[in-house]
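tmp note - SRPBCC family protein
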Amino acid sequence: MDWSRYRFRSLWVLPAPPADVYAALEQADDYPRWWPQVREVRRIDDRSGDVRIRSLLPYDITFTAREVRRDPAAGVLEIAMTGDLDGWARWTVTADGPVTHARYDQEVEVTKPLMRRLAVPGRPVFRANHALMMRAGRRGLRAYLRETRQAV
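out:
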C-alpha cells in the first residue's frame, strides 16, 4: 500500500435546486467566501488557478487546479491537481426530489515532504482533518446558498 495515496468521497445533501448548487460549485474563486478552509484561490487563466487550503493542522496545502471537465447537463465539474497534492477531484450534482446531492470524489497522492514523512503515523489524522474540512464546506455552502436565494 502506498501510504501517501488517498481516495475520498463525500456526499452533501443541500436544500437548493441543482442549478444553484452547480453554479456555486463552478465559481471556485468564491470558495473562500463560504468554505473556511479554502484560504485563497488565485486565477491563472480561464481554466486554472492556484489554491491554498488549511484546516486544523498547522500547515498550508497548495496546488494548481486545472479544469478538466465542465458539463452542466451532466452536473459534473472535474479538476486535475498538481503541487502538494497530485491527482484529481470531481463534483457530481444530481437532483433527489426536493434536495440536491453534491458528491465529491477525490484521488490524490500527497507530495508535500512533511506529509510524506508522516504518512504512516499521520494517516488517521490526515483523514480526520479532511473529514472536518468537508463538513465545514457543506455547512458553508448551505449557508451561502440560503443567503444567495434570500438576496434574489
